[in-house]
Sugar diacid recognition domain-containing protein (Bacillus carboniphilus), 386 residues
Amino acid sequence: MMNVPEALAQVIVDRMKEIINQDINFIDVNCIIIASTDQKRIGKFHGGAQTVLKKKDMLVITSENQYEGTRKGINLPVYFEDTIVGIIGITGSEEEVSKYGKIIQSMTEILIKEAYIVEQNKIERESQKQFIEEILFRIHEEDRDAIKMRSELLNIKLDIPRVVLVARIHEKTNKKSPKTPVINEKIYNFIKRFIEFDPQNFLIQSGMNYILILNENSVNDIKGWVENIHSTLLKEYKNTIYFGIGSLSHNEDELSESYQKARGALKVALSSKDLFYVDYSELDLEVIIDDLSDEVKKKYLHDIFKNMDERSLNDYMELLSTYFRNNGSIMKTADELFLHKNTLQYKLNKIKSVTGYDPRITRDLVVLFIAVLIYKSEQSGNPSML
């Protein structure tokens, strides 16, 4: 039998009072008032509820304490799936409150049913999230039969072509207030509305990331679909969302691999100022860098930039990144950085004197370009590299 939570019962009686402006009680099946618009009555025994439970019908109380702990009014059984789960009581004379009885009874039953559906959806969502995380993260290995059985129970087909996407909302460092759970839920529901057209599309939130598992057959143009989410979110919430797109998968092992690739692609997207999505299949040098250990990356930057402080390193990286993005054009780089071209030349000479590598020479340029990629990659996950 369903137990109506006290918090839900209190919401119901408060909402009903707004409609009819009468004191209302919610009594549980143990005949205890668990919610009331008269706070002094909460926790008290209600003798009339016993009669309602026995008769399964409305009870009119015509005088104070006609039954233990009662006042004048009407009391009606509240049903959920043909079972009484409580009693709703309206305080007042029969003439005042009888006209509201059936309406309040029906509205209470509707609110309880809606709350139950919401709770069941939460349970289903959490069960799907747990199963998908186990598949993607390989929290523990299960035998194939167990995986297959759980996927069938949760209606998650693992043998259809799927693509994993990992997304993250851009966090502005100057933003004073962090995202609250309410805002997180709004963004979750915003993204979810783009995938609800196919029951085999799934969305879970893991830390700062939103993980989308898409049925490849239902999304013909993933990049166009991603662009639509990005532009709509920017318009509605004034926030930028970044995506990493993984590889095509056909089973749970490949699904886990697709997730890892999507995560790597997202890392590249977050480190770039120009791209809000990155497809792992289109990466080349970034893939090699992503496979390097943190120790190797740290040593590479240290060998080139020695013991440079973070601020100076960041300034040089910004300059080099802009220089590479403009294919070595002094004029375009200077314009983008609001520098005189002679000042830019001076700064490039300074990089050469500090590192021993000249970004205007092809061989040296490659060394510095890799350093920029490593720095950007690690900045998205590990701000301190030197």
User: Anything to note?
Assistant: The beta strands are 24-27, 33-36, 59-61, 73-80, 83-91, 162-169, 202-206, 209-215, 241-249, 277-279.
